[in-house]
Amino acid sequence: MNEKISPAAGSGLLARLGAGAAATVLLTTALAAATGTPAAAVARADIVAVAQGQLGNAGRNQEQPTGSGCNYYTGYFRSWKPAGGCPATDGVQWRNSDWCADFAKYVWKNAGVSDADVAEGDGGILTGWASSFRDYGAKHGTWHARSSGYQPQPGDAIVFDWTQNGEIDHVGIVKSATGTTVHTIEGNSGNRIKENSYSRTDADIVGYSAPVGADSGTPTAPPFDGSGDGDVRADFNGDGLGDVAAFYDYPGGRTGLFVWTAKSGGFNTPALVWDSGLNNWDQWRTKPVAGDFNGDGLGDVAAFYDYPGSRTGLFVWTAKSGGFNTPAMLWDSGAGNWDQSRTKPVAGDFNGDGLTDLGGFYDYPGSRTALWVWTAKSGGFDTPALLWDSGTGNWDQSRTKPVAGDFNGDGLGDLGAFYDYPGGRTALWIWSAKTGGFNTPAMLWDSGAGNWDQPRTKPVTGDFNGDGLGDLGAFYDYPGGRTGLFLWMAKSGGFNTPGLVWDSGAGNWEQPRTKPVTGDFNGDRLTDLGAFYDYPGGRTALWTWTARSGGVNSPAMVWDSGPNNWDQSRTKPV
Predict the structure, then answer these.
(1) CB-based contacts of 167: which residues, under 8 Å, 6+ apart?
(2) The pTM is what?
(3) Residue 177 binned pLDDT confidence (cut-offs 50, 70, 90)
(4) pLDDT digits (tens, 9 = 90+) for 412-438
(5) Could you give all domains of the chain from N- to C-terminal order, each with its CATH number?
(6) Rg for the chain (alpha carbons), in Å?
(7) Under a CB-based contact definition with an 8 Å cutoff, are residues 193 and 185 in contact?
(8) How distant, in Å, are the alpha carbons of 6, 57, 158, 497 from that of 175?
(9) Cα–Cα distance, 509 to 477 (Å, whole number)
């Protein structure tokens, strides 16, 4: 198995963080991170996240050699099974056996289901037999026969009898279910970990065992667009597919707004939907964001514009059928009141009213940063409100790369930031939203010294696995023309350890030539990633990484400007 790569060779970062939650540290003694109390219940979302993590683990998600029966999960639990011809990885000698139950037990154990932590030799009811999961449910009163009409919940064990002869043949983990269909993640399905779907009336399904202590399940997700916060972000024409827009810088103080509308299999040719005309708009004075600011179900575009004399204007291009309305200034700071160059904007529905709000991390002198929010209302925005202040000497905004999304699934958009510490150390801080503002920021991931260089990071957000929680991603710049794409999948109480889901290889992709975007480009309810890539000779291409269970597909070029047709350095995507 190839070792998972982290942004510092030989750092051992991922292994260390995988053993437990990263330690909370202080920015200074004046800025303390909030420490949460673990919930007593087993989080169903955690069970699904563990299963998905194993599905995406290319080093152990199939038998090696193929079809041999050698698998990691039997070796993890049952050292007495035969090991001839089997590899050893991650400190585990692989073993040869049917392994669907070993996989399901591994998932439950690593998500905190207490009974799954008891070895069968010590009286544990869960064994290498699929039937043990039915026995578990019967013993604890959590068994539900298919015929009962029970609504399967994420994290349940689903038990099968392929021949309906009364003998249990197979077990998997429920990922999700609708009124008619149950979606699963199963070990030893075609000699690998695999996602499957079944009619809930399928006679092969015997029933379901719920893990003892599990929470009541995942609430219904808000209307989806891939943002993880319930707004429509960049679906500019309302067809359910995420589109891409960009402000293009022409000479002579002229800016054009172009839109690439998504279609089946890619994108349409970009269309110019607004042109400022000569000497009317400097693109370099513009910081754009996207969201549904008026609640009509169409993604709009907003921009903070930098005027001389420390004056900033907030302009919005509301979407309409076939394009956008003329931009309107909906807030004006007035001269001497706001320096746009000190502002890093974000967008999200921070109060849960269905309208996208705006936020800005503002850089004050003396290493002081404040978070201001413009809440959307009918016809515009409320006066910005100061909702967090680091205090002097506590936070350097220039070391901050902010993001937004509903990271905890409560229907409110949260804020996050990758913070650059000296010595090649990066931390992820989250401001979770609450009624009337935000909670004190909490550090939810720490790379450790020498493990992650934040200036080499270009972050993005979206719901990459479709569980209704906003996840985080980052394109990381390695030396030698190599780029890695890492994802931090959200879970109850924080994020899983970042996983490398794509690696360009040396000499194949220069991250500094990349401007990333996100959206559900193909309508499968998973957020995809995109990037405008800068080629020499005035050529730009749009590449997309479509999301799939456990990771992303290989990037595909979905638009190419051709030589001398588009200068990516003049492009600001939204």
Answers:
(1) 131, 161
(2) 0.64
(3) confident
(4) 999 999 999 999 999 999 999 999 999
(5) 44-209 (3.90.1720), 244-573 (2.120.10.70)
(6) 25
(7) yes
(8) 28, 17, 10, 20
(9) 9
